[in-house]
Specification:
This protein has 190 residues and is α+β, with helices and mostly antiparallel strands. The protein has helices spanning 5-38, 115-118, 177-182, and strands at residues 45-46, 58-67, 74-77, 81-85, 90-97, 104-113, 121-126, 132-134, 139-148, 163-173. The termini are far apart.
Length: 190
């Protein structure tokens, strides 16, 4: 028995809407997976230890710090740059300061430029892996331990990279429940 043309058109329209919704729902996880696998968009890799290969070739690492417009912290790299041999483990620090009278929680998003170097920039440990909470008036130095994977010299596009910029942006997030209950604004100083 043949389907009525009106019903067939309606079924096709519903199918298209369902397909488009499914594609929209899957696009963010797929994009994140794609970026983490390829380094596209400045995403980095992670490792539990440093590289066992260190090359004589060096690369300059620049450090950049930003805050979301609603974030009340001050945030900056302790040093603007460093030069490392490819494969050598680097340790850099960023400084954050909470000038307010209440605790503020923040999370850092990051990227690496040029994008072609993102896949080879490998973090061993980073403050960006966890939420950070700064108490009123607190100033902290937060470490990031990293290396540039020696495989970068075999990549058709990335092998010519001589300078990599590691950039962070801090965004305010909700305080954890146990911290929020303890966070009481300080009395104004007269």
């Amino acid at each position: 028995m043949a389907m009525d043309p009106k019903n067939k058109t309606a079924a096709q329209a519903v199918s298209v809407v369902v397909l488009m919704g499914a594609l929209a729902w899957a696009s963010v996880p797929f994009y994140n997976w794609f970026c983490s696998v390829t380094g596209f968009g400045g995403f980095t890799n992670t490792a539990s230890t440093g590289s066992d290969v260190i090359l004589d070739r060096t690369v300059k690492i620049r450090f950049d710090a930003n805050i979301d417009r609603d974030m009340k912290w001050e945030f900056k790299p302790v040093q603007p740059s460093m030069e490392l041999r490819i494969g050598e483990t680097g340790l850099a620090f960023y400084e954050a300061y909470n000038p307010t009278d209440h605790a503020i929680a923040g999370t850092a998003s990051y990227n690496v430029a040029p994008f072609s170097a993102g896949y080879y920039f490998t973090k061993i440990d980073c403050f960006c892996f966890n939420m950070q909470v700064l108490q009123p008036g607190e100033r902290v130095q937060m470490p990031v331990t990293f290396y540039v994977d020696p495989e970068i010299v075999t990549d058709r596009d990335a092998k010519f990279v001589k300078e990599i910029t590691l950039s962070y942006t801090f965004h305010e997030t909700e305080l954890p429940v146990e911290q929020a209950s303890l966070s009481v604004p300080l009395a104004p100083v007269n």
